[in-house]
Amino acid sequence: KAYVTLKWVALIVLPALATLVGALGTAWGWPHLAAIISTITAVSAFVGALIGASNASAKAPENTETPRENS
Questions:
Q1: CA 50 from chain center: how many Å?
Q2: Which residue, 21, 6, 14, is CA-closest to 42?
Q3: What does the pLDDT look like over 53-64, one tens digit per residue?
């Protein structure tokens, strides 16, 4: 459940939030807008990377030995 929630946050919520903040911040003249958007985007990328690493390790085969070549 936590994986699904984090995936939804990283793939849907944070990018949508960055877009919303960018649009509203431009319209309303919010200060430090670029830094705020960069922070949201960086958090999104970080959570996405954690999810990707978690997914890769969960699907990793148990036997990590490389097959021997036939001579």
A1: 7
A2: 14
A3: 877 777 767 665
